[in-house]
Write a structure and sequence with these properties.
Elements (H helix, E strand, L loop, with lengths): L4 E10 L5 E3 L8 E6 L6 H19 L6 E7 L11 E7 L5 H7 L2 E7 L8 E2 L16
Antiparallel strand pairs: 1-2, 1-3, 1-4, 4-5, 5-6, 6-7
């Protein structure tokens, strides 16, 4: 024992000139803590859990994708991405042709690992229909 780690997450939604605001009609649903006891379950794992839940909700409810970011901190919630362990940004697919959308995938994700200054973001190598744990940067 003694290997448990607490990860705190929050989902924010882009609101144009208002900036980033808590996501959804019930923001407490998209803010919480995940306790892990496996060293392989780090910030990326927590973000993947939340993203998978978001995508599932969008698909089940048919609400469509949103421009959101999932912020993960180690221990306790910080102020924003600048002090996070990981920030994953999900941008809606802007392709309007359904046939093209199926070829290109549904989500484009960006993530900024801890230690990267605000101007550095890593882009996934492709768009993802099923996000899962793949947040690897394009080489």
């Amino acid at each position: 024992m003694g290997t448990e780690k607490g990860w705190v997450y929050r989902v924010d939604e882009a609101h144009g000139s208002l900036g980033w605001l808590p996501y959804g009609g019930h923001p407490e649903r998209w803010r919480g803590t995940v306790i892990t006891d496996d060293h392989t379950e780090a910030a990326e794992y927590v973000a993947a859990l939340v993203v998978t839940d978001l995508v599932t909700e969008w698909e089940v409810r048919g609400t469509g994708q949103r421009h959101v970011r999932v912020i993960v901190w180690k221990g306790e919630e910080g102020d924003g991405p600048e002090d996070s362990a990981l920030t994953v940004e999900i941008q809606p697919d802007i392709v309007t042709d359904p046939a093209a959308r199926n070829r290109l995938g549904a989500l484009c994700i960006r993530h900024r690992p801890r230690g990267a200054h605000s101007g550095v973001e890593q882009r996934s190598g492709r768009c993802h229909r099923n996000v899962g744990l793949d947040t690897r940067a394009e080489e």
